[in-house]
Amino acid sequence: MNQTMSSPFDLPPIPAPAAQGRVTFSGRRPDFRRLVIRGTALELVTVGFYRFWLATDMRRHLWSNTAVDGDAAEYTGTAKELLIGFLFALAILAPIYLAYFLIGLEAERLKAFASIPLGLFFYLFAQFAIYRARRYRLTRTVWRGVRFWMTGSGWSYAWRAGLWALLSLLTLGIAAPWAKASLERYKTRHTAYGSLQGRFEATGWSLFKQVWWLWLLAWPSFLILIPLPFIYGALKAIEWRWWVSGIRMGGVSFESGLTGGALIGLYWKVIGWSVLLMIILSAWFGGVFAIASLGGAHSIDEKFFLTTQNLPALFALGFGYIVVALTAGVIVRIYLTRDVWQRVAESVTVQNLSAADDVAAQGHLVSALGEGFADSLDVVGF
């Protein structure tokens, strides 16, 4: 009779390690710079309407050059969707602005009284728009042929954001880490990649332990402004690392190795460029005032009066301001969008990536109305 003999050297098989992937970014900075400069020039020519096409081109560049384990993402949104969403948003918001204007015509006291509830409404509405815009961007994000999607209520998120903002204000910012954790949990539990359900596992306490010393340093720094970029840059890097490490998609998890000083230099570069632009704008304004008031004014008030009566001078002042403002937008997009994106993306490691191998497509597309609201309130993001 044959018997199966076991040996003390027969060890159980070692399970294969969970698949791990790196996030890489292959986008070339000169390509992005040319894209943004060309788009900004077209914004000037089209009185700002080209921004929908510029935002779409920027997202396609960032998405398509960001790869997880060699597979790049895809952005499928279109500029036409953004434009239509913006126009619908304006149609909805216009009556609100008109009502406030009519109240102002009726009585200044009523206008002042109406400013408080109007401000609160627009804060909550901005949070609603941010949530809905995120839904739009997720449903236009595809990886390995499967799209992300999102459910949940924008108004439910807005009320949560409003109450947390009030608590953060009352506690002088101490409650902010718990506010961020709570809002991220709401957003992520309504987010999915195909059939993989999202969740957020980082806590407010884990963030507070990393940033409390920055909170203490921030208060005296308001008197001496120089340390603020260091503090803010370190805070954003810690928040990014905390946020990435808290995300889960089914069995897939993420880790970030972003260092605390990774973003500080970017903020200083933006500040340096901003100071230079302010000097250029001041010199431009001074030159226009001097030319417009040649031989006819002595005091500053007289020069200002003569300039306001000179149509070419007014055009030159407006043109200089618009050019500087658009140039500032180029700088912010390069350093605080593209460069921050690259540094955060390249710090990420994906754990148990094999859990995303057999994902079933789910979810459906949503309209760009939320993105339009966000754009009309100037809170649009990436």
Question: How is the topology of this model organized?
Answer:
Layout: E1 20-25, H1 29-45, H2 51-64, E2 66-68, E3 71-75, H3 79-106, H4 108-139, E4 141-143, E5 146-150, H5 154-170, H6 176-189, E6 191-193, E7 196-200, H7 204-221, H8 228-246, E8 247-249, E9 252-256, H9 264-292, H10 300-308, H11 311-345, E10 348-351, H12 369-376
Antiparallel strand pairs: 1-2, 1-10, 2-3, 3-4, 4-5, 5-6, 6-7, 7-8, 8-9, 9-10
Helix pairs in contact: 1-2, 1-11, 2-3, 3-4, 3-12, 4-5, 4-12, 5-6, 6-7, 7-8, 8-9, 9-10, 9-11
Descriptive overview:
The protein starts with 19 loop residues before the first strand and ends in a 6-residue tail after the last helix. Mean pLDDT is 85; it is low at 1-11. It has 382 residues and is of the alpha+beta class. 63% of the residues lie in helices and 11% in strands. It contains 12 helices and 10 strands.
